[in-house]
């Protein structure tokens, strides 16, 4: 996989993939009856947020409950996993 060089293509690809990701998250929340939250920043720095419960306090709640359980992946400092 190679990086997209054109800014216009980069933004178009991001929007297309983001739409697809949100659709899949919505399907997962319905079929698995689970609470799904997605927070992604666009290439321009704008946040995109999806919360299957429509409770927009989810990130604060998550951080309050799980801060001590967050583990940083040493191979990718941007990836976080919860144990």
UniProtKB/TrEMBL annotation:
Originating species: Solanum pinnatisectum
Keywords for the protein's UniProt record, in alphabetical order: DNA-binding, Nucleus, Transcription, Transcription regulation
GO molecular function, one term: DNA binding
Gene3D superfamilies the record matches: Transcription factor, MADS-box (3.40.1810.10)
GO CC term, one of those recorded: nucleus
Name of this protein: MADS-box domain-containing protein
Primary location recorded for the protein, binned into one broad class: nucleus
Ranges for domain MADS-box: 1-54
Keyword Metal-binding: no
UniProt xrefs under InterPro entries: TF_MADSbox, TF_MADSbox_sf
Compartments in which it is found: Nucleus
Pfam families: SRF-TF
